[in-house]
Amino acid sequence: MSDSFKGTALIAGASGIVGNNLARHLVGEGWNVLGLARRPVAIEGVTPVTADLTDPASLREALSDLAPTHVFITTWMRQATEAENCRVNGTMVRNLLDALRSAPLRHVALVTGLKHYLGPFEAYGKGTLPQTPFREDQERLPVENFYYVQEDEVFAGAERQGFSWSVHRPHTIVGYALGNAMNMGVTLAVYASLCRETGRPFLFPGSPQQWNGLTDVTDARLLARHLAWASTDPAAANTAFNVVNGDVFRWSWMWGRIADWFGLEPAPYPGAPTPLEEQMAEDGPVWADLAKRHGLVESDLDRLASAWHTDADLGRPIEVVTDMARSRRLGFLDYQPSDDSFLDLFGRLRADKVIP
């Protein structure tokens, strides 16, 4: 990307883990940044845009006087079934692009994830799965998947409106955001804090395959740089990308690194999953008391921890690693040590009084 290039970025989902980190990165690079959310959060340098992606009239009104050159779709809404996920999340993308038909759009970037290869929550990690490491040219799975519907809406919009596109498929995202539905880093920080305060064992909740096998993760800061790169480098136009840190690890090693940061001894792995949803089921009042004693900024455990999603990631019955060769060949060479992703996040959470 040329150092002199600047654009107007509209980030759909600016309050989430991806959008928040992307907004901060783009502001630092000198972009004009518009942050769209139903309930925008204050981010320095970002112009808040209040709109609901499920409400076309609200979108048209909110976007009528705006002229973004680049759109980043970093949000989704969880529904009860995958059929509803497809309907609602596909409609959200279509509504957004429809509301921007008069905008001078150059590029639209869509963030999805490895459920592109693993299947949706209803069929997660089941049946016949592609070989790992996952590569972008692998065929779609023969199941309903809202990621596929979102992609198809972006492709149709590009055909209709003439912009280029990119699709970004991160693994588990580690980064700073509060009140996010898919936030393993914050969830593990809260769990470790509870274990330290209560004296409970710090027990890896996932499957033997995740404990023993290789895996990778995606730092939200690296994903932000990848989104900016693919949206402005012509070599990356009209391409789907995996996005991970560039290293691999085993949870049997990472669990010790996390435990050490919190001053804990990692409990011996019991050989079978002990899901966080079960372990933390009664922890709401415990966290509220802990937050009061330590003067923390959020006393509602449900706004911080997403045990269900962390359980889905750590409970997979297969080893999950991701190939980054496509990005490397096209010039994106950034690398991020994954233990630093977690430890940097924990440091910020403590500094901001999110954890004790």
Summarize the structure.
This protein is 42% helix and 13% strand.
Describe the structure.
By secondary structure, this protein is α/β, with parallel strands linked by helices. 42% of the residues lie in helices and 13% in strands. The chain contains 15 helices and eleven strands. The strands form three sheets. It has a seven-stranded parallel β-sheet, sandwiched between helices. A two-stranded parallel ribbon has the order 7-9. Helix 1 (17-28) crosses helix 8 (220-232), helix 2 packs parallel to helix 3 (82-99) and helix 9 (251-261) runs parallel beside helix 15 (338-351). The protein starts with 7 loop residues before the first strand and ends in a 5-residue tail after the last helix. The relative contact order is 0.14. The model has no long low-confidence stretch (mean pLDDT 93).
List the helices and strands and how they pair.
Layout lengths: L7 E5 L4 H12 L3 E6 L8 E5 L5 H8 L6 E4 L8 H18 L7 E5 L3 H4 L27 H16 L2 E7 L2 E2 L9 H15 L9 H5 L1 E2 L2 E2 H13 L6 E5 L5 E2 H11 L14 H4 L4 H11 L6 H4 L2 H8 L10 H6 L7 H14 L5
Parallel strand pairs: 1-2, 1-4, 2-3, 4-5, 5-6, 6-10, 7-9
Antiparallel strand pairs: 8-11
